[in-house]
Write a structure and sequence with these properties.
Layout: H1 4-24, H2 33-47, E1 53-54, H3 55-62, H4 66-78, E2 82-86, E3 94-98, H5 103-124, H6 126-155
Antiparallel strand pairs: 1-3, 2-3
Helix pairs in contact: 2-5, 3-4, 5-6
Length: 156
């Protein structure tokens, strides 16, 4: 029977293997991993009619440093992927939107990733896919809580 430590090591290995595969094998051809995360957030918000995102919201969602997000956004703006617009009511607030002419590029990448998700679904089946979704969501919540507690203890 495997020990708890062996299971933890296996989970760590599986996580690192998936992370390395996603980042290292360039599944996405037109966007970096961070760019696709930001595009996905902007697309989801725009597709349901929500207000454009701010850099602060993007930092919170991606868990990247503010300086990293600013660098990524500058690059995305130079590539013509996003637009930044100052709020008419509060000039300190800058809204970020996915440009209409960049939308087809993003949707091509999005569709490609959905094809991968479809393969996982077809291979695993509906029940295992739902279990995977729930487990990944639960693990993300646990890691987030661990980080918050660790940061709180570090700052105390």
């Amino acid at each position: 029977m495997e020990s708890k430590r062996q299971k933890e090591e296996q989970l760590l290995h599986a996580f690192l293997e998936m992370s390395a595969y996603i980042r290292g094998n360039r599944i996405l051809s037109r966007f970096s991993f961070n760019e696709i995360m930001i595009c996905n957030l902007l697309y989801r918000r725009q597709s349901v009619g929500e207000q454009a995102a701010t850099a602060t919201e993007i930092v919170a969602w991606t868990k990247l440093l503010k300086s990293q997000v600013n660098h990524i956004l500058t690059g995305m703006e130079e590539k013509g992927l996003i637009s930044r617009t100052r709020s008419e009511h509060d000039k300190r607030i800058v809204y970020i939107t996915l440009r209409e002419d960049a939308l087809p590029l993003y949707l091509q990448e999005h569709e490609y990733v959905l094809q991968i998700m479809d393969l996982i679904y077809e291979t695993m089946g509906s029940e295992k896919m739902q279990t995977l979704i729930e487990l990944v969501s639960q693990a993300t919540t646990i890691v987030d809580e661990f980080q918050r507690r660790s940061l709180w203890q570090f700052e105390s």
